[in-house]
Design a protein that fits this description.
This protein is globular. It has one domain: Immunoglobulin-like (Sandwich). It has two helices and eight strands. Strands 1-2-3-6-5-4-7-8 form an eight-stranded antiparallel β-sheet, with no helix packed on it. The chain binds zinc ion (ZN). Zinc ion binds next to loops.
């Protein structure tokens, strides 16, 4: 009986830590947002010139070489949707054009493992200010649990 109870207990512990892990955002090595919950990880990073760099990492967040992934993105800016195409640069995929003016809009990032793979879509709420708590770009903030609404905009007004 005792063994079964211990097994049940360790199962519960495992389930709890897995949930905690899923809720906590992973800090992107370049300062961007990790879109994935499982490896291989995908990081969305906005450069100073507002082009987007998408990088890939293993479980330990070590960069992995590209293996034919195909990335595209749609910026749902207030001025209209803008498609971003990506090309390989320094081992990552970099957008050929910059994000449209403004912020506080959704960027849908579509990742395919290869040209014929099914696309996976990830949504990022793009904010260009810096978070006062973690000092990361707001879209890549790791302070709150994933999916929680931020109050930075309220402070700005
Ligand atoms: Zn933060």
């Amino acid at each position: 009986m005792k063994t079964i109870r211990n097994l049940a207990l360790s199962f519960i512990t495992l389930a709890v830590s897995a949930a905690a892990f899923a809720a906590k955002p992973i800090p992107g090595p370049k300062g961007g947002r990790i879109l994935t919950t499982d490896a291989p990880h995908v990081e969305f990073f906005v450069e100073k010139d507002r082009t987007v760099t998408v990088s890939f990492y293993d479980k330990a967040l070590k960069p992995v070489a590209l293996t034919g992934q195909v990335v595209s993105a749609t910026a749902e800016a207030k001025t209209g949707k803008v498609q971003l195409a990506f090309a390989e640069k320094n081992g990552a995929l970099v957008s050929k054009t910059a994000l449209p003016e403004g912020d506080d809009y959704t960027v849908v990032v579509q990742v395919r493992d290869n040209a014929s793979a099914r696309p996976k879509n990830y949504r990022v709420l793009y904010h260009d200010e810096v978070c006062g708590e973690c000092k990361r770009a707001e879209y890549a903030c790791i302070c709150d649990d994933a999916g929680k609404e931020h109050d930075h905009d309220k402070k700005k007004k």
